[in-house]
Amino acid sequence: MKVSWWIGLAAATLLAQNGGLAPRPNAADYPARTTIKSATVAAALVAPEQVRKIFAADLSHAGYVVFEVAIYPEQNRPLDLTPADFMLRVPPDGSTMRPAEPAVVAAATIPYDKHTSNPPSLPGKVQVYTETTIGYESGGPYRRGGVYTGGGVGVGVGDPPVPPPPPPSSPKSKDQARDELEALLSAKALPAGRIAQPVAGYLYFPKPSSKHKIDRYELTWLAEETVRLTVKAAN
Description:
Blueprint: H1 2-16, E1 32-35, E2 39-46, H2 48-55, E3 64-73, E4 79-81, E5 86-89, H3 102-109, E6 126-137, E7 146-157, H4 174-188, E8 193-195, E9 199-206, E10 216-222, E11 226-232
Antiparallel strand pairs: 1-2, 2-3, 3-9, 4-8, 5-10, 6-7, 10-11
């Protein structure tokens, strides 16, 4: 029974760590940190210029701030980690924000076109081709002989006898860029699951509103205990 428990724990831990970032060697390597019974929590605000280098996209212009968060569980105290349990606000005023899903952040950064159209497609294996005929027609009692030409369009089933040349290379489409950004945001996000080893990753928050200049953020984690971290804003 004990062996089965450890196997299940190892599998869950591996699942939770299938993504995110390598945590820093020590929680003290983060500018903000605190310790509760089950873990030490640490965080840092990622500067907008660094975010642009990491993701090759301007998430700040799209309305998002990025935090690197690390969880260091206490020895022999596995815990469940859910990114949605984090909240962000600007003290002393400002609304509270939950982290956004990577797909939402990617769509805000590279918006969809308002009007899209897809050309109609023919059924598979159906080829359209033009046909031109040149021949000689002999004269008859009511017409003269001579050279004639004819044209038409035919539809055939099956592969064409000669494959068409490959299309010319084209720049990456917005849809491709958006999909790649979403995949990268997902890969580097704070992982979810049951953990027993340190994990780290990014959380993407909509920028909180405030009537004053933002000099610090308050990051809250609703775990076994309520954890609050004060993180300095970028200069």
